[in-house]
């Protein structure tokens, strides 16, 4: 049975220490200062889509929800924290703080963009509002869970773009993945983003992802000759055989596969496919297709693998390769060309100590792109007359919106456009209210379908690999002016 607890179903008893030490030292500091319950707002967002692409596919929220639901410091966690020592051998944390952690219950409001949604730079994927100590404490786990899966789901969506709607994508990456969970969560995200199946059996069991596969070169090497190896495999799996044909000589391998396919047919079975794993995949797939068709096996699929990614798939397609199943491992599950998404988690608003309202906060940087956006933000996606997205607007939900809306490019305030459309969708949806899960989370299958629908709804120009069109994401003009003013104020306090 696929699980709704993708993370805690695997790791027990507690994952509350899945964090950086500084979250706990800050928590201790806030507690000592009596600041722990000041209401705060944080946003999790990235500043640039990965792979020099035009978008990202949001993923990892189910893990984040699972982690937040289990957030509770157990006795083992507290004993470990109690034993931590500072440089002079002193206990790092006061025992009274550990008692505080023992009783701590998650009480924040969390709003998030659904997994599988197409998202862009600067858009909060998750907004957390609640007691400062708690909202800060969860930063690292949210980032580790969302950054990686968003990265891999995006990679898979790009591979799907290259492969097209009809061919199959099988994810084969476990052996080259970034460790145990790297392998498992990459498989989940790859499936969400567009893969059709995986060789990863644990992921199949955990998430209900179809498991598929062929066999290794060692299978062929374990027999006297290749044909005997294919025969033996066909005996074991008469209706589920895909033969790896390149161990010695690929086209000889295809001829051996055909002979075994003929014997299978004589006993009422059909060969499923052959796999190519080296050499010129265009030439070999075309030749293999010709041989198979001439022998009366047009339905036998041709699987290809060997360090493939979206660029190679595009090239092979352009060259006229006759591949209909793409086995993609290393470059998918490690996001080889960009191994990390730089998602960040920034404080955007803090209640004043006297409770008289919000103080908005910005982290300023030499680069405008790295300067954060203050407010309690929502992302509004405007749709054109044809129902297709035309622009996204970030706005501060704590301020009233003017009747005439204008969005401003946060990177270039001279670029602004009025918002004419009446049709829109608010992307951040309630997930937790005061620590209680209020969302009915979609299944992995539903999230996967969402990716497909979302990507189809955008102009293809944002999906292309080379110089993709930049989809307009702007700040509501009032928010933009306010942010500029706040930046100027923060800069003004620095001596010239
Ligand atoms: N027609 C083609 N056009 C572009 N790239 C191709 C083509 N065919 C294969 N490739 C890619 O070229 C790279 C090298 O493949 P090749 O089989 O020559 O070397 P290899 O991986 O070292 O082989 P082996 O697995 O036998 O060691 C792989 O990433 C493969 O996917
Ligand atoms: O190339 P990737 O996209 O990473 O896809 C997975 C690779 O893993 C296997 O190779 P490996 O040499 O590990 O084992 P094998 O003997 O089964 O080919 C398989 O043959 C693929 O080439
Ligand atoms: O089943 C396969 O063909 C397979 C599985 C893992 C890695 N490479 C290939």
TrEMBL record:
GO cellular component: cytosol
Boundaries of every Nicotinate phosphoribosyltransferase C-terminal domain copy: 378-481
Chain ranges of the Nicotinate phosphoribosyltransferase N-terminal domain: 17-147
GO terms classed as biological process: NAD+ biosynthetic process via the salvage pathway
Domain of life: Bacteria
EC assignment: 6.3.4.21
Recorded metabolic or biological pathway in which this protein acts: Cofactor biosynthesis; NAD(+) biosynthesis; nicotinate D-ribonucleotide from nicotinate: step 1/1
Processing and modification events after translation: Transiently phosphorylated on a His residue during the reaction cycle. Phosphorylation strongly increases the affinity for substrates and increases the rate of nicotinate D-ribonucleotide production. Dephosphorylation regenerates the low-affinity form of the enzyme, leading to product release.
Entry keywords, A to Z: Glycosyltransferase, Ligase, Phosphoprotein, Pyridine nucleotide biosynthesis, Transferase
InterPro entries reported in the protein's UniProt record: Aldolase_TIM, N/Namide_PRibTrfase, NAPRTase_C, NAPRTase_N, Nic_PRibTrfase-Fam, Nic_PRibTrfase_pncB, Nicotinate_pribotase-like_C
Domain Nicotinate/nicotinamide phosphoribosyltransferase: 169-350
One example GO MF annotation: nicotinate phosphoribosyltransferase activity
Catalysed reaction equations from the record: 5-phospho-alpha-D-ribose 1-diphosphate + nicotinate + ATP + H2O = nicotinate beta-D-ribonucleotide + ADP + phosphate + diphosphate
CDD domains given in the database record: NAPRTase_A (cd01570)
Protein role: Catalyzes the first step in the biosynthesis of NAD from nicotinic acid, the ATP-dependent synthesis of beta-nicotinate D-ribonucleotide from nicotinate and 5-phospho-D-ribose 1-phosphate.
Family: Belongs to the NAPRTase family.
Protein name per the record: Nicotinate phosphoribosyltransferase
Biological source species: Hymenobacter oligotrophus
């Amino acid at each position: 049975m696929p699980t709704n607890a993708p993370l805690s179903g695997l790791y027990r008893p507690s994952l509350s220490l899945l964090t950086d030490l500084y979250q706990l030292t800050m928590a201790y500091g806030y507690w000592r200062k009596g600041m722990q319950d000041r209401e705060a707002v944080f946003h999790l967002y990235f500043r640039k889509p990965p792979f020099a692409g035009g978008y990202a596919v949001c993923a990892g929220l189910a893990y984040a929800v699972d982690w937040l639901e289990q957030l509770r410091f157990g006795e083992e966690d507290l004993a470990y924290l109690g034993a931590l020592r500072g440089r002079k051998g002193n206990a790092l944390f006061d025992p009274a703080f550990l008692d505080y952690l023992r009783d701590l219950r998650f009480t924040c409001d969390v709003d998030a963009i659904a997994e599988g949604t197409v998202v862009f730079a600067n858009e909060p994927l998750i907004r957390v509002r609640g007691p400062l100590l708690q909202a800060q404490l969860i930063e690292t786990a949210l980032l580790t869970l969302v950054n990686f899966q968003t990265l891999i789901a995006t990679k898979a969506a790009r591979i799907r773009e290259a492969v097209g709607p009809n061919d199959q994508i099988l994810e084969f990456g476990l052996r080259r993945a970034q460790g145990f969970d790297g392998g498992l969560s990459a498989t989940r995200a790859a499936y969400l983003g567009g893969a059709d199946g995986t060789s990863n059996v644990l992921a199949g069991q955990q998430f209900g992802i179809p498991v598929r596969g062929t066999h290794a070169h060692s299978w062929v090497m374990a027999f006297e000759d290749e044909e005997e190896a294919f025969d033996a495999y066909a005996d074991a799996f008469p209706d589920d055989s895909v033969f790896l044909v390149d161990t010695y000589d690929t086209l000889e391998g295809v001829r051996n596969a055909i002979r075994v396919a003929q014997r299978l047919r004589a006993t009422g079975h059909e060969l499923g496919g052959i796999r190519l794993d080296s050499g010129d995949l265009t030439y070999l797939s075309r030749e293999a297709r010709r041989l198979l068709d001439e022998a009366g096996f047009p339905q036998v699929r041709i699987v290809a693998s060997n360090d493939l990614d979206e660029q190679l798939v595009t090239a092979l397609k352009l060259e006229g390769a006759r591949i209909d199943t793409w086995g993609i491992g290393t470059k998918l599950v490690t996001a080889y060309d960009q191994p990390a998404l730089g998602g960040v988690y920034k404080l955007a608003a803090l209640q004043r100590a006297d409770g008289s309202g919000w103080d908005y906060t910005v982290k300023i940087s030499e680069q405008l792109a790295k300067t954060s956006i203050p407010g309690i933000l929502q992302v509004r996606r405007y749709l054109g007359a044809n129902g297709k997205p035309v622009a996204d607007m970030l706005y501060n939900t704590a301020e009233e919106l003017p009747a005439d809306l204008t969005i401003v490019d946060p990177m270039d305030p001279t670029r602004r456009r009025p918002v004419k459309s009446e049709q829109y969708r608010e992307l951040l949806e309630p997930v937790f209210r005061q620590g209680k899960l209020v969302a009915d989370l979609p299944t992995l299958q539903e999230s996967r379908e969402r990716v497909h629908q979302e990507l189809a709804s955008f102009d293809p120009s944002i999906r292309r690999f080379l110089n993709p069109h930049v989809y307009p994401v702007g700040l509501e003009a009032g928010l933009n002016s306010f942010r500029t003013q706040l930046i100027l104020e923060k800069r003004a306090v620095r001596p010239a």
